[in-house]
Amino acid sequence: MTPVATDIRFLLGDRCILRARRMLVPLAYGLDAILAERPLVPVPLPPDADGYRVQSVPAAQLSRLDQQFTGFLKSPPQLFARHYIDMALGHDGYMAQFSSKTRATLKRKMRKLADANGGTLDMVTSVNEV
Q1: Of 9, 12, 78, 118, which residue is most buried, by most CB within 10 angstroms?
Q2: Residues 6+ apart with CB under 8 A from 34
Q3: Strand ranges (DSSP E) for 37-106?
Q4: What's the rounded Cα separation, in Å, for the pair 32 and 6?
Q5: 71: alpha, beta or left, given left = phi > 0 and alpha = psi -120 to 50?
Q6: How do residues 70-113 score in pLDDT, each as one tens digit?
């Protein structure tokens, strides 16, 4: 992987008191790895890299990072709630899970979104359509 110039901010409360630019190799968990609870495997660092920038780590796997990345400094993670929808049933099956009132509300919001987009709304139902 190619290192990317990344600003590391040193904060005092909400104020940034220092900024350091480092060349970091981005490593990210994909949804498939999160669902399978697979550990993140670090790639060898190129000579021009200062370290890793690990992204999208599930909170339950934060303790593993100490064992996987020994000898590196780490900063406190930003924690965000992650939500995903299992669309194995397809769009119609997903919508059928809701009450008729919720379905009507979702359809109304879809129409409003389409109107804001010039009257069209593109529904992507598979990765191949992107």
Answers
A1: 9
A2: 56, 58, 82
A3: 51-55
A4: 26
A5: left
A6: 888 877 777 777 777 877 888 888 889 999 999 999 999 989 98
Looking at residue 21, its amino acid is R
Please spell the DSSP secondary structure of 9-33, one letter per residue. EEEETTEEEEEEEEEEEEEE--HHH
Q: CB under 8 Å to 64, separation ≥6 — which residues?
A: 39, 40
CB atoms inside a 10 Å sphere around CB 67: 8
Distance CA 42, CA 40 (A): 6
How far apart are the C-alpha atoms of 38 and 29, rounded to whole Å?
9
Give the whole-angstrom CA distance, residue 25 versus residue 27. 6
Which amino acid belongs to residue 125? T
Phi then psi dihedrals of residue 28, to 5 deg: -135, 145
Yes or no: say if 43 and 52 are a contact pair by the CB < 8 Å rule.
Answer: no
Look up residue 36 and give its two tokens. 């399978």
